[in-house]
Design goal:
By secondary structure, the protein is of the alpha/beta class. It is globular and about 70 Å long. The strands form three sheets. Strands 1-2-3-4-9-10-11-13 form an eight-stranded parallel beta barrel, surrounded by eight helices. The chain has a two-stranded antiparallel ribbon with strand order 5-6. It has a two-stranded antiparallel sheet with strand order 7-8. It is 38% helix and 17% strand. The protein contains 13 helices and 13 strands. The chain starts with 8 loop residues before the first strand and ends with a helix. The longest helix has 20 residues, at 144-163. This is LLM class flavin-dependent oxidoreductase. FMN binds at residues 59, 94. InterPro entries: Diverse_substr_monoxygenases, Luciferase-like_dom, Luciferase-like_sf.
Length: 364
C-alpha cells in the first residue's frame, strides 16, 4: 500500500508546554498548570481545531527534561479524561511495554476506546534505562533486541485479548438470567518467552475491535517491530534516508507511515531559528529528529514533500505549544485539502475493519 496525495494524516504530540524543555519559560508559564485538567483539555481542543487527526501523549517511568518541573500523568488515564472534551480526534497514549503487563494495558485501552467512542490507539514504546528497571525492580535493563521481541509479544497479547470477547457476547437474556454468552468468550492461551496469558479479558471487545497500534522507528529492532503495527512513525531525516526507510516499511506491509518532526513556526525561518537559539540558551534540546524552523506555508510544503516520498503524513511536535499550536491552526490548516476526517480512529487512518480471529476460526 502506498501513500496517497490526498489530505495528509496529521498527528500532534502533546507535551505539557511543548517539545522543547525550555518551552514553559518562553511563555512564562507556571509549571503547576500542567497538573490541571483544564490545561490539557485546552491543548487537546487546540489540536482538534488545528485539524489534527490524532494526538499522542508521552509517558515514562522517570521524568524527562520536558516534565521534571511539572510531573507527568499516566498517559492512558489522561487520554480518557480528555476524551469527552474532544469529539473528533484520535487519542493515542504511550504504553511502555517494558516492565508492564499487557493484560492490564489491554483493558485500559479498551476502556479508553469506549469512553472516546472508538477513537483510541496505542503508541507502543520500550525502555532500556537502568533507572526505570531499578524503579520497577522486577528485572534489569534489557538489550534493544530483547525489548523489541518483548514488545512484539506484548502487541500480540493486546490484540488477542481484545478479540477474546466476540462483539455479540453480551446478550442480557432476562429469561435465563444470563448477561453474557460464555461460548462467545475465548481463552487466548498465549505462551511466549516473556508472557504467559490465558484470558479472556475482563473488558468487552473495544468498539473498534482492535485499536490501532503505532510504533516509532528508532533503529533496526523497532523497524522490525513496526512491521507488526498498523502505523509507523519515522524521525525526520534527509530525503534519501526517508525513502529507504519508507520503502522497507511498505514492503513489510505497514499500512500507514508518518514522519516525526519537531516544529518551530514564525513569520520567517530566521525568526524561528532565533526562537530556538533563545530556548537553547536556557536549556539545550536533545532532539532525536530533524527540527523544522520556518513558516506555516513552508511546513505545509514539507509535509507535501514527504507525501511525495511515500509517506501518509506527519506527526508534528510543537516546540512551544502557546506559540506553535495557534500558528499551525492559522498558517497550516488552511493549506490542507478537504475537511478533517471523522469516525473511529481506524476509519480516520483509513485502516480496514478489525476481524476477530476467534470468529474467523469458527467460520472457517
Amino acid at each position: 500500500m502506498t501513500a496517497t496525495t490526498s489530505r495528509p494524516i496529521l498527528g500532534i504530540a502533546l507535551e505539557p508546554f511543548g517539545w522543547h524543555p525550555a518551552a514553559f519559560a518562553e511563555v512564562g508559564a507556571d509549571p503547576l498548570e500542567a497538573t490541571s485538567a483544564e490545561h490539557w483539555v485546552g491543548l487537546a481542543r487546540s489540536a482538534e481545531v488545528t485539524a489534527a487527526d490524532l494526538v499522542t501523549f508521552e509517558d515514562s517511568f522517570t521524568l524527562t527534561a520536558r516534565d521534571r518541573l511539572s510531573g507527568r500523568f499516566d498517559a492512558t488515564l489522561l487520554a480518557a479524561r480528555l476524551a469527552p472534551s474532544v469529539p473528533r480526534i484520535g487519542l493515542v497514549p504511550t504504553i511502555t511495554t517494558t516492565h508492564t503487563e499487557p493484560f492490564h494495558a489491554s483493558k485500559a485501552v479498551a476502556t479508553l476506546d469506549y469512553v472516546s467512542g472508538g477513537r483510541a490507539g496505542v503508541l507502543a514504546a520500550t525502555t532500556g534505562a537502568a533507572d526505570d528497571a531499578a524503579l520497577v525492580g522486577r528485572k534489569g535493563p534489557q538489550t534493544p533486541a530483547s525489548r523489541a521481541e518483548e514488545a512484539r509479544e506484548y502487541i500480540e497479547v493486546l490484540r488477542d485479548l481484545w478479540d477474546s470477547w466476540e462483539d455479540d457476547a453480551i446478550i442480557k437474556d432476562r429469561a435465563t438470567g444470563r448477561f453474557i454468552d460464555r461460548d462467545r468468550l475465548h481463552y487466548i492461551d498465549f505462551r511466549g518467552e516473556y508472557f504467559s496469558v490465558k484470558g479472556p479479558s475482563i473488558t468487552p471487545r473495544p468498539p473498534q475491535g482492535s485499536p490501532p497500534v503505532i510504533v516509532r522507528v528508532t533503529g533496526a529492532q523497532t523497524e522490525a517491530l513496526a512491521a507488526r503495527a498498523d502505523v509507523a512513525i519515522v524521525p525526520a531525516a534527509v530525503d534519501e534516508s526517508l525513502v529507504e526507510t519508507v520503502s522497507r516499511l511498505r514492503a513489510a506491509g505497514v499500512a500507514r507511515v508518518l514522519v516525526d518532526v519537531t516544529v518551530h513556526l514564525a513569520d520567517s525561518e530566521r525568526t524561528a531559528r532565533r526562537r530556538i537559539e533563545k530556548l537553547d540558551r536556557r536549556e539545550p534540546a536533545d532532539d532525536d529528529t530533524l527540527v523544522f524552523a520556518g513558516t506555516g506555508e513552508s511546513l505545509a510544503r514539507a509535509v507535501a514533500g514527504w507525501q511525495a516520498l511515500g509517506f501518509d503524513g506527519a506527526r508534528l511536535r510543537p516546540g512551544v505549544n502557546a506559540v506553535d499550536l495557534p500558528r499551525l491552526r492559522s498558517a497550516v490548516t488552511p493549506l490542507l485539502h478537504g475537511s478533517p476526517r471523522t469516525g473511529s480512529l481506524r476509519e480516520i487512518l483509513g485502516l480496514a475493519p478489525a476481524v476477530n480471529r476467534f470468529v474467523a476460526v469458527k467460520g472457517a
